[in-house]
Specification:
This protein has about 400 residues and is of the alpha+beta class. The chain is built from ten helices and 17 strands. It folds into two domains: about 260 residues, Naphthalene 1,2-dioxygenase Alpha Subunit, Chain A, domain 1, CATH 3.90.380; about 110 residues, Rieske [2Fe-2S] iron-sulphur domain (Rieske Iron-sulfur Protein). The strands form four sheets. Strands 11-17-16-15-14-13-12 form a seven-stranded antiparallel β-sheet. Strands 4-3-2-5 form a four-stranded antiparallel β-sheet, with no helix packed on it. Strands 1-10-9 form a three-stranded antiparallel β-sheet, with no helix packed on it. The longest helix is centred in the last third of the chain and has 29 residues. It binds FE2/S2 (inorganic) cluster and fe (ii) ion. FE2/S2 (inorganic) cluster binds next to loops.
């Protein structure tokens, strides 16, 4: 039997009678047209309506140290600055000085801000990490002059609406999205038995991908490719068994693979896991997409987030963060385990990036929109496409 035949037979055996019937909207669902992945005008509309008007994740709190740190990031074309003050409070601002608009902090990693004061490289105006304007040298022509109250009130750093959830930092740039608490509530309810305060970050990695941001989302939601592109993760009969699609809200959906977590097979090796989690998550991978740019996976013993930053129609930056559960997993004893965990996440993501770039290449033909979504497998991709259409026509 050829390899292709063997794979076909495995897939047939695995899915027979086990997947739920496809939803009605899959009857003649087709891919978005190629131009949705290549056209600059389409991209600009997505940035406005999907990204700026939505809740987007821009990083994780663990990227910052315990206090007095700043993290510059760029999302949806905006230079942003995350600050963590002495009390550990996290805030997000536009990363620009209120004097002449210089970008305040450069680079792409967190930096210590020793005295808790951030000074502009141009004329040395300085801000506290809560955004208050603190120092304006020679403002009145004299050394050591301080801004007066009215000026302080007017010229602090410009705040960005933000929220922290499961270590992720979310922002809403337009300022008028629904409250974050109600936006995230369906997922918070689903994951209430996971004590996410126990998560400890092992690594963050940034990848620049020559592909449209939606291709990264679609691929994330595509279970169908997993046994073929990531053969190391398992055969179809294990991966696809009892697979269940999950629709929590218009913006939050994904699937659960109940038999995924092989770390649990060696559970006596892993001392700390989410305690008191619901039974249904005991060996499961719960994969959840938060429209438009947040890709999450949780298991009893680890968590992974990817935040997508669209740079151009055919270019996306991915920020991937991996987490283990419990302080003990951060000790020297578990270093090898953590290194291996980080290597596995990286390997899977690099395998995906190879496919994403081929998908983008395919969009050059202009004929890719004539592709056909597979009714049993692609409804989450179709759901995403519908969401994009809806957002752009609203
Ligand atoms: S632009 Fe920042 S102090 Fe002048
Ligand atoms: Fe994948």
């Amino acid at each position: 039997m050829s390899e292709a035949e063997s794979i076909h037979n495995m897939a047939g055996k695995a899915v027979s009678g086990r997947l739920p019937e496809p939803p009605a909207f899959m009857a003649d669902a087709t891919c978005l047209p190629s131009s949705a992945y290549t056209d600059q005008e389409f991209f600009d509309r997505e940035i406005q309506h999907c990204f700026r008007e939505g809740w987007i994740s821009i990083g994780t709190v663990h990227q910052l140290g315990s206090s007095n740190e700043v993290l510059p990031v760029e999302f949806a074309g905006e230079p942003l600055l995350v600050t963590k003050d002495k009390q550990g409070e996290v805030r997000v601002f536009y990363n620009i000085c209120r004097h002449r608009g210089v970008k305040l902090v450069s680079g792409d990693s967190a930096a210590k801000c020793g005295p808790g004061i951030l000074s502009c490289p141009y004329h040395k105006w300085a801000y506290k990490l809560d955004g208050t304007l603190a120092i304006t040298p020679y403002w009145d022509g004299t050394n050591g002059s301080r801004p007066e109250e009215a000026m302080r009130d007017k010229l602090g750093l410009i705040p960005v609406r933000s929220a922290v959830w499961s270590d992720l930092i979310f922002v809403n740039l337009s300022g008028d999205a629904e409250p974050f608490e109600s936006f995230i509530q369906p997922l918070e309810a689903r994951w209430k038995s996971f004590d996410r305060s126990l998560m400890r970050m092992t690594n963050t990695s940034s990848y620049e991908v020559a592909a449209n941001w939606k291709l990264a989302c679609e691929n994330f939601l595509d279970t169908y490719h997993v046994p073929w592109v990531h053969r190391q993760l398992g055969a179809p009969d294990m991966m696809f068994r009892d697979l269940d699609y999950t629709y929590l809200s218009k913006d939050i959906f994904g699937f659960i693979m109940p038999h995924f977590d092989r770390v649990r097979e060696e559970m006596d090796m892993v001392p700390d896991m989410f305690p008191e989690r619901e039974d249904r998550f005991d060996y499961a991978l719960d994969l959840i997409y938060i429209f438009p740019n947040t890709l999450l996976m949780i298991t009893p013993s680890w968590f992974q987030s990817i935040s997508l930053s669209p740079l151009a129609p055919g270019k996306t930056r991915e920020l991937l963060a991996g987490f283990v559960v419990g302080e003990v997993m951060m000790t020297e004893e578990w270093r090898e385990f953590r290194d291996e965990f980080d290597a596995v996440l990286d390997q899977v993501n690099v395998q995906d990036i190879g496919i994403l770039e081929l998908l983008q290449e395919g969009r050059k033909t202009g004929r890719a929109g004539e592709g056909q979504y597979a009714p049993y497998w692609d409804h989450l991709c179709e759901y995403l496409s519908q969401r994009v259409r809806e957002k752009l026509t609203a």
